[in-house]
TrEMBL record:
Protein name per UniProt: Hypoxanthine phosphoribosyltransferase
Cofactor: Mg(2+)
Domain of life: Bacteria
Gene designation per UniProt: hpt
Biochemical pathway: Purine metabolism; IMP biosynthesis via salvage pathway; IMP from hypoxanthine: step 1/1
EC number: 2.4.2.8
Signal peptide: none
Xref: CDD domains: PRTases_typeI
Organism: Leptospira sarikeiensis
């Protein structure tokens, strides 16, 4: 289908989730989150940098009072089994006894999220839930329930809507399959 392809710098990328589909799904997720957090005063945390578009769109679709914060980790992947994660930017707010919702772009192996979840839990929030736009097959290493998932996907590498390849393509308006 012609509409399935986005030409970007003359590179044809195949659409996995078009902008309109993402908008619709993000709206649904926002309403669900708003229902679950009615009468609460949550802190919503964006995992930089990949979560940036999902976080900005999602929080605008949650029509209740929210506080926003940002956290960043870096994964060093040497071999499959020796990936270590380091904290680059910590939260600015005090989340002790707060309801925290962590927003991620994609769970792949789950290592990054596992690290951030344990870091956040050490600050003793009242509750911690996770929203991820995408969940890749095999991401169970995270060992924590992901309450809000946009879509489950296969092992493919995806770009756009915050997701990068080598720092590029984050600004593509939807999620696309990356192939060299
Ligand atoms: P994990 O620690 O293996 O779960 O990897 C999580 C991080 O790796 C994500 O937050 C992304 O930044 C990046 N990542 C994993 N899979 C993809 C992908 O398909 N496209 C772009 N980035 C990805």
């Amino acid at each position: 289908m012609k509409n399935d392809i986005l030409n970007y710098n003359n590179i044809p990328f195949k659409t996995l989730f078009a902008r309109e589909r993402i908008e619709a799904r993000v709206k649904e997720m926002g309403l669900q989150i708003a229902q679950d957090y009615t009468d609460k005063d949550p802190v919503v945390v964006c995992i930089l940098r990949g979560g940036v578009y999902f976080f900005s769109d999602l929080t605008k679709e949650i029509p209740i009072s929210l506080e926003l914060d940002f956290i960043q980790a870096k994964s060093y992947i040497g071999t499959e089994s020796s990936g270590t994660v380091e904290l680059i930017k910590d939260l600015d707010s005090d989340i002790k006894d707060r309801d925290v919702l962590l927003v991620e772009d994609i769970v792949d192996t789950g290592r990054t999220l596992k690290f951030l979840i344990s870091h956040i839990l050490s600050k003793k929030p009242k509750s911690l839930e996770v929203a991820s736009l995408l969940f890749k097959e095999g991401g169970d290493a995270v060992g924590y329930p992901i309450k809000y998932v946009g879509w489950n996907i296969g092992k493919e590498f995806v770009i756009g809507y915050g997701l990068d390849y080598d720092g590029k393509f984050r600004n593509l308006p939807g999620v696309f399959l990356y192939s060299e």
